[in-house]
Amino acid sequence: MVAALPPTGVRVRVPAKINLALKVGPPREDGFHPLATVFHAVSLYDELIAEPAPAGEFTVEVTGDDAELVPTDDTNLAVRAARRLAEAYAPAEGARLSIKKTIPVAGGLAGGSANGAAALVACAELWALDLEQEELLALAAELGSDVPFALVGGTAIGSGRGERLVPALARGCYHWVLAFSDEGLSTPKVYGRYDDLGGLTAPQPTVSDELMNALRAGDAAALGAALDNDLQPAALTLRPRLRRVIDTGLDLGALGAVVSGSGPTVAFLAGSESAAIELSVGLSSEGICRTVRRAVGPVHGARVVT
């Protein structure tokens, strides 16, 4: 039996993302790398509950997978998001936040960004703010590159630092198998290694026509062949064991494989639900990753649930 949600609380469910493509340019003057990416939201979720608190009081508690790795002070992105929303629209409010983690920490799946987006949606509802999505997106872009996509979900093309979004012309539902590693990867370290390895010389990266055509056609086989991540070589030098994970999944019949974001999670595309089940069983039996989860995509972004 599921415990009833307190009548004053708001529960939000928010998905993980994978990057179907991640093209990275050389560092800009501000230190950020220009990106061209295709975000894809998948059915692996964190949940956040927001409850009222005195004005200016913002706290968070975290349970679930990797909870001990998540900060619970003012550096927590959900706390930062709630505080920023209050500063902009509700200075007389506060919030007590509770996060239940399923998305791995430092896994390349934007779990922290997802929590920030969930806090924006939950607190806007909690405080009865009548905000347009564009207003939440503006705040989300201040908080982090992946936060805006966690709000909207689906499949979208990201540019700039990833915060500028346009919907992708995409058809179909895709079956994914996600292989989680024993420990996370630091995004700054991966970008640093990417730069050490030479990076790209093109000032503005672009996503391949092959990948975009596959999405428009809903062609899973073509999409699997077009999955692409410029950060993958850097992630593999930092976690050489990922090469075996990728090779094993492809040998087991995956249509394609890609390290998601800065890693170390590897996303495998399967041709069907039954193929995804077989692939997940095969990967699990090999004992080469911490755990394996199946997911489908695309799914909606952060949403209030009852």
Automatic annotation (TrEMBL):
User: Which catalytic reaction applies to this protein?
Assistant: 4-CDP-2-C-methyl-D-erythritol + ATP = 4-CDP-2-C-methyl-D-erythritol 2-phosphate + ADP + H(+)
Give the record's keywords alphabetically. Answer: ATP-binding, Isoprene biosynthesis, Kinase, Nucleotide-binding, Transferase
What SUPFAM superfamilies would the database entry show?
GHMP Kinase, C-terminal domain, Ribosomal protein S5 domain 2-like
Q: State the pathway, as annotated in the record.
A: Isoprenoid biosynthesis; isopentenyl diphosphate biosynthesis via DXP pathway; isopentenyl diphosphate from 1-deoxy-D-xylulose 5-phosphate: step 3/6
Return the EC number: 2.7.1.148
What NCBIfam families does the database record attribute to this sequence? Answer: ispE (TIGR00154), PRK03188.1 (NF002870)
* Gene3D superfamilies associated with the record: 3.30.230.10, GHMP kinase, C-terminal domain
Q: Which residues bind ATP?
A: 104-114
Family label? Belongs to the GHMP kinase family. IspE subfamily.
Role description? Catalyzes the phosphorylation of the position 2 hydroxy group of 4-diphosphocytidyl-2C-methyl-D-erythritol.
- Name of this chain's protein: 4-diphosphocytidyl-2-C-methyl-D-erythritol kinase
Q: Where is the GHMP kinase N-terminal domain?
A: 76-154
Q: Which InterPro entries match?
A: GHMP_kinase_C_dom, GHMP_kinase_C_sf, GHMP_kinase_N_dom, IspE, Ribosomal_Su5_D2-typ_SF, Ribsml_uS5_D2-typ_fold_subgr
